[in-house]
Automatic annotation (TrEMBL):
<protein>
    <submittedName>
        <fullName>Rhodanese-like domain-containing protein</fullName>
    </submittedName>
</protein>
<dbReference type="InterPro" id="IPR050229">
    <property type="entry name" value="GlpE_sulfurtransferase"/>
</dbReference>
<dbReference type="InterPro" id="IPR036873">
    <property type="entry name" value="Rhodanese-like_dom_sf"/>
</dbReference>
<dbReference type="InterPro" id="IPR001763">
    <property type="entry name" value="Rhodanese-like_dom"/>
</dbReference>
<feature type="domain" description="Rhodanese">
    <location>
        <begin position="47"/>
        <end position="137"/>
    </location>
</feature>
<dbReference type="Pfam" id="PF00581">
    <property type="entry name" value="Rhodanese"/>
</dbReference>
Length: 174
């Protein structure tokens, strides 16, 4: 048993760490600005989600596939066109390609400048598809199996396999 009076060595990673109250404010703030694809999908599956999903990618990317029901408004057009398509005060969730792209962050900034309540969907379209959610294309709806690296419970990894033919909302295993 270790002696509680001895000083523990702080790992280099934690040599500079925020105080608990600062960490609470930071992470609460992030949740005010961000959502993940599972939470967006769950909200969209309700009768009245109460927000508009906006795909901020290019025309070519939109055509490859997009979140069902999303509005297409590329980031460069938001400042000039958002108010013509989305009533003032309507909550907006924006997304772009994926975590390697900051297009949704720039789009969220434009919506915020226009006074809209806005959140960024973390993971973007890439994680929408990787988590196994259906997506819309010019040829109709498509859906890929969930990537076990994004959602082990939903992919049947580490537990009971998914029922044969099951398709539905995947909830985050977090």
């Amino acid at each position: 048993m270790s002696d509680p009076t001895t000083t523990q060595t702080v790992p280099a990673l934690f040599a500079n760490v925020a105080a608990a109250d600062e960490a609470v404010a930071h992470f609460r703030g992030r949740l005010a600005f961000e959502s993940d694809v599972s939470d967006v999908a769950a909200a969209l599956a309700t009768d009245a989600p109460g927000f508009v999903v906006v795909d901020t990618r290019s025309d070519e990317s939109w055509t490859q596939g997009h979140v069902p029901g999303a509005m297409h408004l590329p980031g460069r057009r938001i400042a000039g066109e958002a108010t013509a398509h989305i009533p003032a005060g309507t909550p907006v969730v924006v997304y772009c390609w994926g975590p390697g792209c900051n297009g949704a962050t720039r789009a969220a900034l434009e919506f915020a400048r226009l006074g809209y309540p806005v959140k960024e969907m973390l993971g973007g379209f890439e994680y929408w598809v990787r988590e196994g959610f259906a997506y819309d294309t010019p040829d109709g709806m498509r859906q890929r199996p969930a990537d076990a690296l994004t959602n082990v419970a939903a992919a049947g990894v580490g537990g009971a396999p998914l029922p044969t033919g099951s398709v539905g909302v995947i909830s985050c295993a977090c």
